[in-house]
Amino acid sequence: MGKIETFSPQKAEPWLVKFVNCMLGQLTSNFSPLQESELQRLLDAESSTLYIISVDGVPAGMLTMCHYHAPTGCKAWVEDVVVDAAYRGMGLGRRLVEHALAKAQKLSPCTVMLTSCPSRIEANRLYQSVGFEPRQTNVYRYKIKSVEF
Predict the structure, then answer these.
(1) What number of other Cβ atoms are within 10 A of residue 53's Cβ?
(2) What pLDDT sits at residue 3?
(3) Left, alpha or beta for 38 (phi > 0: left; psi -120 to 50: alpha)?
(4) How many other C-beta atoms lie within 10 A of the C-beta of residue 55?
């Protein structure tokens, strides 16, 4: 394996937009491709950070961590963890998650959470192996549709 780096891009350059959309396509078939302006809004947000992992300068995976403060304390959510199919099995997902957890230490005390579909066996093993504990809870979703003015 070559040189591995994890970084947080600041500008939604065309290569990054293309890469993020490619990764989202590998993560789920149910997504709308991000436009440059949408990705830039994510990159500019103080409460979220996109992490990219690269091998020899080639982007190979991504993870987003979002955080907020609630009356019950600081919370952070790990979202959209995906490693390109060509780079799977190299431990890059673990490196991404461990990198995000190290960054979350700056928020401490903080609870870091994530959700993962039960069918993603390898991902669930990874999360538990780095210390995430399954919770017996219901996760609900309410989608607000785009409104055009």
Answers:
(1) 22
(2) 94
(3) alpha
(4) 18
Selection from 134, 126, 36 nearest residue 82 by Cα? 126
Distances (CA, A) of 143 to 38, 107, 140, 146: 18, 29, 10, 9
SS3 of residue 115 by DSSP: coil
Can you list the residues of the chain whose pLDDT is less than 70? Answer: 1, 149
Q: What is the pLDDT of residue 149?
A: 66
pTM (2 decimals)? 0.92
52 - beta bridge partners?
Answer: 7, 62
Tell me the C-alpha to C-alpha distance, in Å, between residue 57 and each of 36, 63, 110. Answer: 22, 17, 32
Beta-sheet strand order (sheet of 73-83)? 4-7, 48-55, 58-70, 73-83, 110-113
Query: 75 pairs with which residues across the strands?
Result: 68, 111
| CATH 1.20.1270.360 matches 4-129 | no
Query: Counting Cβ atoms within 10 Å, is residue 10 exposed (0-12), middle (13-18) or buried (19+)?
Result: exposed
Q: What pLDDT score was predicted for residue 148?
A: 74
